[in-house]
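Aim 2 progress update. The chain analyzed this quarter is reproduced below.
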Amino acid sequence: MTYRIVKTDAFKVFGIEGIISTSGDPNYYPHEGEFWGVVNSNPAEDSQYTKLANDAGIVKHPFNDNMFNQEMCKIHGLMNYNQINETTYGYMLCSFVAPDSNTNGYKIVDIPAATWVAFNADMPDWDMCKTMGELILYSKEWIASSGFEKADGPEFEMYGGSPDHGYIEYWMPITKA
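Predicted structure tokens:
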């Protein structure tokens, strides 16, 4: 796992929101992975994921970061942008708003200008939950000795790769300690 520091101007994302419960409330999703599964549950051509990917348009980075994997997926995960209460929060499958995006019917979130640390890892078997857990653990170890601290704000799971080999980045907002 490696990391880099990235600065961005404000930008927008849009997508499908699910509510995650940390207390086991059956009215909400128990974890992000189940939400991804539901969004992908119909046949591929009819899934909410496919509709969002088609509505994304021609996606370009809304920030200047030439280190991101060039085989970037159109859909990413957004978290920590919407705490509902102590035990529930919003999680979103999202895409960057582009000039040709169709955002009608989707939730739009404004992402403020920020400095991010982007941790990345390969996912040879596309095991997103395992790899994301390892990145979050690594990020906590990095923060403890980095001279930075986690800033309030949204966090991203950025995905890329091919059908056979995945790539993930965990973007966390930071400030100088």
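The two ends are 23 Å apart (CA to CA). The chain is about 20% helix and 40% strand. These observations will guide the mutagenesis experiments scheduled for the next reporting period.
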